[in-house]
Amino acid sequence: ILSEKKLLNATSLAFGALLSPGREIDPSPPAIQRDPSRCEKCGAYPNLYSRLTPVSGQWQCMLCQKINSSNGEYRPAGANDLHNWPELVSPVVDFMDAGSWRPGFVPVADSTVAAAPVVLVIDESLEEPLLQHLQSSLHSFLDSLGPSTRIGIITYGKTVSIYDLSETALAAADVIPGDVAPSQELLKMLIYGTGIYLTPIHTCLGVAHTIVSSLRPYSGNLREAARPRCLGTAVDVALALIQGPSTQIMAKRSSGNSHVLVCAAGPNTLGPGSLPQFENHPNYAYIEANSIKYMERLGRKARLSDTAVDVLCAGTCPVRAVTLEPLVKASGGVMVLHDDFGEAFGLNLQRSFTRAGGLRATLEVRCSEGIGVSSVIGPGQDASSDAAESFGREPAVALRMMSVEEHQGFALSMQLTSNFHDDYAYFQFVVRYTGTFQARITRVITVRLPVTTSVSKYLTGINPEAAAVLIAKRTALEAKSMADAAELRFSVDQRLKDIRSRFGPRAGAPPFPREITKLAEALFHLRRGPLLGSIVGHEDERLVIRNIFLQASYELALRMVLPRVYLFHDNGSFEAVPAYNLAMQSQTALILDHGTDVHIWLGHELCQDEKRNVVAFSACKEFVREITETRFPVPRMLTFKEGSSQARYLQARLIPAHDDPPYEQESRFPQLRELTQEQRARLKVKFVKTDEPSLTVWMKSLKL
């Protein structure tokens, strides 16, 4: 990083960090089963950069320079003895709370640990085709649950039906009105009544399947958007079931987050938080504002009971995502849109329930003096008051997280508060959470970066892809509407111009710094892609993609900004190539991975050879399964042939380079050199003339 405050803080280049607390690390970090030492001044943990005094066992904090006692712990006889203290040799370590540690399992006799419950909240207003897909996905989901998982089933439409899982031969439910919020008396009658609405799946699997099979398609004549759906009332009842009697709350502690999984095919149109049918309603803005407030209160209520509300939507009816998003965000859940209730929906249903790797988490960030954190984007809430421990200096960031999940990440923007005079800057990230087996784990990550006065060294040290994700998250945070997105596309252009004005041109160097050309390409994709561009049509889809991106881990966020293209070869291998339309060669197949969307494209010549086509398509499907095996949300997968109307979905996500000069094409897409002149000529003429600029034309228009 640069040592000069004025230059580093004013630059349009991002200075910050991308942190994925739940990311799997291979090999696993050392696990230390003892209480760690802490710096008495700033609360930092000892690490591989701490200076030791072997005689006394004292260690010096690299953040505040305070000399601390280790109570005689750190007394190595030599450098080779440091491995006895993993925190002094490894940049990442896990401290296990000795008081909560259980070696690898929870004893069966420990009845105080209850399996985390899940309540399915199902839309009743479905057409026959959607319902058939939903039933198939729900049957698979029920069969995938562990035997001790507690399950509840609720359906909603004009009323809310809470199914009694104690029945064995038929689907029976208690029905309550959906047009008003359930009263406390009514909820007490349900919870303390004779019905069993939440029970381990091994005791009710048969009746759960019977309930799913008994669902019937919508029989009225109202259009989809006008059908009565009391979603708010149904979620409120589901939370009451999870909370249960007060005696049960005191007696049980859950081994995981509770989940409410909402399967919706349309907007909330009845009862609390509902919206009018038409957006031209004279009081629509006022009603929408009240709906957002109600859903946010419901989400906070869910969070207080460690319950995540996930809303999984399907079909073509708009769900008015702007009112459901506060419910999902406040509870720590996710919202995903699907074309139907088929395979992708079923996988998301299963992964949404199993995704959390830790519970009741906190994140603390500490930096060297002179470095501050200006903003944080991610799935956390401020917890600075909770972090006021018995240390003289509070952390730069203190956040509460409902859970630690592999697909989640934080973007931390940083700045210098004064000119930096040391040779190195230090950063420490601390994540505390309760693991699957109730052990309290503290993961400590320590990073050291060199400080320089040389602009050239600074540019060389930048990770352009990480910088692109950090910039994209800061930009997408402001893109709340199509109008915002149009303005922000212009801001991307201005950002690149500002980088040029501050870091170029230098003697013998191109106008735009060569060290970060990958950043320019990524930002070009950003302004054309689903976050800022026009390839996503409906506001529901744009909002959902934006929210997924803002909470995504580095790997998922990078794919959503910078798509990756894989070219199929006849030997069964795949080659990663730049995301240009020059990859659309008729003799092969392509896979485009854009994070939340994966496309398989089959060339015209390939399709004419039936045997090659079958082999290529099978290989592509298997490769997609491998690269998305653990991804959440499960991406939407589309398959199409060259020349079909759907092929435009892929072409719109690729950089149009067919009109660039040949030397520019080969520079950007080296694989072209392997084609014959005839193949290159056929490739060029099949693209339609458009006004959309290529990356080269766009950069030249900005004089870069």
Automatic annotation (TrEMBL):
Residues 358-452 form the Sec23/Sec24 beta-sandwich domain. Keywords: Cytoplasm, Cytoplasmic vesicle, Endoplasmic reticulum, ER-Golgi transport, Membrane, Metal-binding, Protein transport, Transport, Zinc. The keyword Membrane applies. GO terms for molecular function: GTPase activator activity; zinc ion binding. One of its GO terms (biological process) is intracellular protein transport. InterPro entries: ADF-H/Gelsolin-like_dom_sf (IPR029006), Beta-sandwich_Sec23_24 (IPR012990), Gelsolin-like_dom_sf (IPR036180), Sec23 (IPR037364), Sec23/24_helical_dom (IPR006900), Sec23/24_helical_dom_sf (IPR036175), Sec23/24_trunk_dom (IPR006896), vWFA_dom_sf (IPR036465). Residues 36-74 form the Zinc finger Sec23/Sec24-type domain. It is a peripheral membrane protein. Residues 464-557 form the Sec23/Sec24 helical domain. Residues 119-355 form the Sec23/Sec24 trunk domain. It comes from the Eukaryota. One of its GO terms (cellular component) is endoplasmic reticulum membrane. Belongs to the SEC23/SEC24 family. SEC23 subfamily. Component of the coat protein complex II (COPII) which promotes the formation of transport vesicles from the endoplasmic reticulum (ER). The coat has two main functions, the physical deformation of the endoplasmic reticulum membrane into vesicles and the selection of cargo molecules. This is Protein transport protein SEC23.
